[in-house]
Amino acid sequence: MHTSRRDFIRSTGCLTIGFCLGKWSLAESVPFAQELPSGLRMNDRINAWLEVLADGRVRVFTGKLELGQGIRTAIAQVAAEELDLEMQQVEVKLVETGITPNEGYTAGSASIENSAMSVRYAAAAARQKLMEMASQKLGIPPAQLQMMHGVISPLAGGRSVNFAELLNGQQLTDEVRQPVPLKPKDQYRLVGKAIPRDDIGRMVLGEPVYVQDLRFPGMVHARIVHPPNYQAKLLQFDEASIRKRFPGLLKIVVNGSFLGVIAADEYKTMQAQQALQQNARWSAPDKLLSLNGPSLIDHIISLPTKTEQVHKKGTIDGNAGMTLQARYFKPYIMHGSIGPSCAVALYDKDTLHVWSHSQGVYPLRDVLATLVGLPADNVHVTGVPGSGCYGHNGADDVAAEAALLARAYPGKHIRLQWSREDEHCWEPYGSAMIMDTSARLDSNGKITDWKYELWSDTHGTRPGGNVANLLPAHFLEKPFPGKVSGFSGGAYRNAQPYYKIPNQDVQVHFFNGPLRVSSLRGLGAYANIFAIESFMDELAEKAGKDPYQFRIEHLEDERAREVISRLRGMVQELPGTGAGIAFSRYKNAASYCAVAARVRVDMKKRSVQVEKMWAVIDAGETINTDGLKNQTEGGMVQSASWTILEEVKFDQLHITSRNWDSYPIFRFQQVPEVEVTIIDRPKEEALGAGEAAQGPAAAAIANAVYRACGKRIRHLPLVIPIT
Amino acid sequence: MVLIDLHVNGRVFHIDTDPATPLLYVLRNQLALNGPRYGCGLQQCGACMVLIDGRAEPGCMLPVQAVKNKKIVTLEGLANSNNHLHPVQEAFVQEQAAQCGYCLNGMVISAVSLLDQHPNPDDATIRAGLQRCLCRCGTQSRIMKAVKLAAAKMK
């Protein structure tokens, strides 16, 4: 399968790229101390990242998946820029095992920083090599050649040559080595511009775009009958009566408590799923939480925890002498993809093929191999865009379930679509979190001491490396041993304030909570920034300072100060409303983002209408200004929905947030107007931005509510208390 | 199973189906259309919107036999025969009014229906007209701009 593309991994020996720079000079185009992106260090051949097609166009390979963030366009832009191609001359091949580089997960706002930058260097190296080859072929020094739209021609005119002619069916297998001469940024035609995405044109026509749209000859449909709750085990079901009622069923797959049904007709599988849900008997579960017991906050505090010191600086003696103390809370929140998770799987000739919208196609391949008992080389996973996921949703789980069905029913493409209830009840949520903050102000209104204690479950139980993290691994007759394990670092993402404070003590207490959890957009940063930036507002008031000035006075980073001061110029307050602001630098290392919100509070109805939100974002070098705007606008709106409305609810047995009525999210009448200003810094490093607005948007709203009605709300979702 | 004549995008299809099958599955699986999408199956999210006699309706719970005498238009049927986009489709592309785009079908179909009834909608009318459709990426502000642009184009 696709062995030709695998050569890039195995090929050895290379031609060293010489220095023939065309019309650029080395001095201005090679950064002083160039560090190649990590993905490029692992896949160091040009043809791992791009190839020239027979028609002279270029195909770029990324190990990332398009999830609505526009990464396909951004990657095409950087390649087209370095190679002086038109956008239409570049196509992007999204992640597929054996074909594209393994770039791990499409997550953490890292696709621009890693994948796009790897492609930039690979394209620049390709440019250099192509110029060298053209020079030899045409007998003209590279400095007297120009490259445009896939053709290399002498500056003085005369015979030219295109990429395909130069390569004659071969590909560039050279190693990308430092220093790589990059195109000078002041010559950019495409990068830093609002290049439109071409997939939106296909979407409006109803062309197949998503994994949900895949159709193969003879494809059959499947549904899984999930247990009624996390712990229930399948005791029995009456297969004969189901078969009698649905004579056309192709297969009922049972393996321990894993129960699936396959039919040629999708509606029939849904009816059979329903019938099985009523027919099957399950063991009684352990209780999630007693309804009459403590609140979720008390419950979390009562759980055993593992404590980690995240940051310590100076000295803090307990809470004595602290000016202010406050406790903030964030509930479980769901990803809530509009399209429930879906996968297609085929087991054929000893190979399992899976089509998935997983954020981690390569890591998924490896755990699927373990799950179904095949060597990893016999599992082939193709990334296909799905509905926006905003983190680790049900994508990997549905792929695992489809894989199990395909093993049990080989030779046919099996399309497994989760129902709305499957997605709502079984996706791994963003963890509930408690944040205790205290701080001391000196007589000048400067923060001298900062203490922060955080309670959180893990924020990363992606399947990579641990098959037990796949949902169906627990259902099987021989379940995979091992506990669900996760990445703990996500909890304290942005837990350390970005402000200059001499004495700091930041701790995290990890608990094992009642619900299945994993990575949701921003991980811990959403709740940490909600707490820190709400608390900064409380401290500003205590210090008698204006919230912009108070923050600026505690910041040393000029870029941080600038997003805040630029925001001040955008915000328009209106009578009868309140405006609030917040700031964060995502991960304290990626994009700078300051957000303001204007809200109207109706005390009688106890409702909050977010009327308008503003953001200023500095993501360093902007690749696509409209993509960055779109991500920031959407981040604010999504975060506003989380903040105002969202909380996963559950009773003693299971999740009760089962659909959009029991887990409402923003509808049009609740959505604020949004406005985004970009501070583009072409000379700076491109920084991840897709999650930058989540945290500050939440705190800006809470701060605005305080200004509007005098109520300081520290408990999300933000409900106006009865007065 | 019964034979049903279904009018979709200007053509008549003879469909052999369980008459209780919701329209969505007939459109997707028997007619291989991608516009209407499964989102919730509960008429709560709007991903499955189709035009039924010119009005936007969710197709996920509607038995196919209930629409056998109606004219159904999906996203695929909006562009004219020369593949010229409908002004609403054009406006969504111009405003780049999508992220993942999964909800886009419901938004475009609802907007076409809305503009048919209200050629000059104000913000409140647009919000009310699209209230049944959920977008999780948070592109609603762009969608509202696209609807306004489409209204201007259709004058």
Verbal overview:
The complex is a heterodimer of chains A (723) and B (155). Chain A has 723 residues and is of the alpha+beta class. Chain A folds into three domains: 3-191, Aldehyde Oxidoreductase, domain 4 (2-Layer Sandwich), CATH 3.30.365.10; 213-284 and 335-426, Aldehyde oxidase/xanthine dehydrogenase, molybdopterin binding domain (Aldehyde Oxidoreductase, domain 4); 433-709, Aldehyde Oxidoreductase, domain 4 (2-Layer Sandwich), CATH 3.30.365. Chain A is built from 19 helices and 24 strands. In chain A, the strands form six sheets. In chain A, strands 9-10-7-17-14-15-16 form a seven-stranded mixed beta sheet, with helices on both faces. In chain A, strands 12-20-19-18-13 form a five-stranded mixed beta sheet, with helices on both faces. In chain A, helix 5 runs parallel beside helix 6 (112-138), helix 15 packs parallel to helix 19 and helix 18 (625-645) packs across helix 19. Chain B folds into two domains: 2-77, Beta-grasp domain (Ubiquitin-like (UB roll)); 87-153, DNA polymerase, domain 1. Chain B contains five helices and five strands. Chain B starts with a strand and ends with a helix. The model of chain B has no long low-confidence stretch (mean pLDDT 97). The interface between A and B is large, with 60 and 56 residues.
